[in-house]
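User: I'm writing a tutorial on reading structure tokens. Could you give me a worked example: one chain, its sequence, then its tokens, then a sentence or two explaining what the tokens reveal?
Assistant: Sure. Here is the example chain.
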Amino acid sequence: MEKQIAIASAACTVFGREGYARASVDALAAEAGVSTRTLYNHFPGGKAQLFQTVVTWSSSEVRDAQLARLRAVLDPERPPRPDDLERDLVALARAFVGLLADYPNHFALVRHIHAEADHVPPEVLTAWHEAGPAPVGRAVAEAMTHLTDAGLLDPHSDPAMTAAHFTALTSLTIVQSTHYGVLPLPAAETDRVVRAGVAAFLRAYGRAEAGPAG
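And here are its predicted structure tokens:
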């Protein structure tokens, strides 16, 4: 198991640097300090199996971090207050954006997944989606439902669409403009984008009772 973890960890570096199509089994083995035979002994499916393992492992790690940040800001056990809504949504977006700096290798992988989707095995794309984006999307939708039930968001909106629009207007905007963290924005610009995104979101989905961010 330790050898598999070491190989997967090294592969994360190679795939993040080279992408899926350009990464060779020889390069993967060299980065891990093992022979290609040893790599195949642990990953009989070769590069495809190793990439799926790395993507699933990395996505699960970031998913857990993202869900923890979601719970910390929008604790389902804490009744949401109208005066806190904008402040909380800004804090949530900032927390999600912070993942870019905390998990650079993961977002390098994701950047390559999007760029090379035509060359990545379909089962790898499915594994990535199910390990990370799908459960996070469901959790954010549940958080939006909680806010809606509290009378803070439009009761006629679809929670999944509400969650997707919140992400698109805030953290996804930063992800795309920085090319998944490669070219970080100055802190002041990040804050401006996040606040503008939350303001736009609340104009579309908010109720008049919600207060300003602090």
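What the tokens reveal: Residues 51-205 form a domain with the Tetracycline Repressor; domain 2 fold (CATH 1.10.357.10). The chain has one domain: 51-205.
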